[in-house]
Amino acid sequence: MNKVEDIRDILEKNDYKKLKSILNEYHPVDIAEFYEDLSSTESLKLFKALDFDVAVQVLEEMDSNKKYFILTNIKPIYASKLIAEMPFDNVADFLGDLSEEDKKAILSLVGENEQVDLKDLLAYDKDSAGGRMTTEYIAFSKDLKAKDALNKLGELALDAETIYYVFAVDSEGRLVGVVSLRDLILAPEQTPIEDFMQTDVKKVNALQDQEEVARLIKKYGFLALPVVDVNNILLGIVTVDDAMMVVEEETTEDILKLSGSDFDKKIDLGQVSPWARAKRRLPWILVAVVGEIFSGRVINDFSAALQTVVALSFFIPVLMDMGGNVGTQSAAIIVRGLATGEINTSSIAKNVLREAAVGMILGVFNGLLVATITYLWQGEVLLGVVVGIAMAFNLTLAAMLGTFMPLLWHKLGHDPAVASGPLITTSLDILGLFVYFSTATWILKL
User: Fold this and answer.
1) CB-based burial of residue 106 (10 Å sphere; 0-12 exposed, 13-18 middle, 19+ buried)?
2) Which of 187, 219, 332, 374 is the most exposed place for a label (fewest CB within 10 A)?
3) Are both 139-239 and 269-444 of the same fold?
């Protein structure tokens, strides 16, 4: 009997004493996973058996649908207390996943001041720095003395997302500096913060893309990054754990787009219907179908050559597949590089030529290999030369095309992942076949 079945059996017996004993053995993240296999009734019974602090952590780990169900099926006062203990940015992200009606139902559970703050956060695009930030940070006036700051820090620490950075602001709330917890502790008690704060503060505008925020946090090794408006007013912070979520979401999104089957990154793919999956992938499959029809047309145009040397058809699959493999590899490298900031579009030609060199090396090695195999198999030297040249040319072309298309797409302001996968593979099939048969016609005099 597995863990979920054990819990289900205990719930049926209403043995809450034993249930609490078992739950004490598990981390809140593990408990949250149990909810994936429990019915609605079982989920509620299990949640009510959790201690308050554990319940908050388990709630944070649930998907939005399950979280909404729990909060709207327990006592409103208890639900309100749970929401109050959750990180503010997590609550805003949760609300962003809900319909307007469901959003109102959850907002009714929080206080008026909290409602205003949450609505302010929801006003930002969910993929921007403002959409990712939390307003639970610590900021003091630059004139505050170190001793007073430490005393206040002790009072505010429980409600803050992080206490390792203390931000300094002027009388208008503008960000003017940052102090580490270590520097604050070591500073002379009567020294104003402005005397030992760092004034070169790395920050982001609330409207900046979340990927840029994640890149900066990774680049500088920050635990948090301040978010400001156009007037440099401190609005909030984005923490490293949120940046990690951004990286995971964007990577998942790019991988799905490479295959032409992307969904909203917040959607649980396990809950997506077969029809919805097929509908999202269908346009790209249709593009591939049209492309392969053109490939067939290319083969038809060279049908005389095929009738003369039937062995030419033996090598079509390996040439097409190898081109597609190298093209997709190059596209994946470029898409990742664009996402992490390691590659930019300032010099498309430079990036294409660099990857073309890689494709040429791969093409030469694989071309020599397949030419040798062709000769040993068919006993025809010229046929081996044709296949070898076509392989070398195709892999070079594949690397160039797999690099050029995502870079061009990004330069035009579109997501580079969309231009990859099916589109590149289909293009390579058409061009690869044309190169192969043209080479055969030229060398074999067909």
Assistant:
1) buried
2) 219
3) no
Q: Where are the domains of the chain?
A: 3-123, 139-239, 269-444
Asked whether the whole model's pTM tops 0.70, one would answer: no
Torsion sign, CA atoms 373, 375, 377, 378: positive
Please give the CATH number for the structural domain made up of 3-123: 1.25.60.10
Q: Which CATH number fits domain 139-239: 3.40.50.800, 3.40.50.300, 3.10.580.10, 3.30.530.20?
A: 3.10.580.10
CATH architecture type of domain 269-444: Orthogonal Bundle (1.10)
**Residue 218 buriedness (CB in 10 A; 0-12 / 13-18 / 19+):** middle
From the DSSP assignment, how many helices (H) and strands (E) are in the chain?
21, 6
Angle between helices 64-71 and 100-107 (to 10 degrees): 50
pLDDT in tens, the chain (446 residues): 467 787 888 888 877 788 888 888 888 888 888 888 888 888 888 888 888 998 889 898 888 888 999 999 999 899 899 888 888 778 888 888 888 888 888 888 888 888 888 888 888 888 888 888 888 899 999 999 999 999 998 888 877 888 889 999 999 999 999 999 999 999 999 999 999 999 999 999 999 988 888 888 888 888 899 999 999 999 999 988 888 877 767 666 665 555 554 545 445 545 556 666 666 666 656 666 676 676 666 666 666 666 666 677 777 777 777 877 788 788 877 877 776 667 766 677 787 888 888 888 988 988 899 889 888 888 888 888 888 888 888 888 888 888 888 888 777 776 666 555 667 777 777 887 888 888 888 887 75
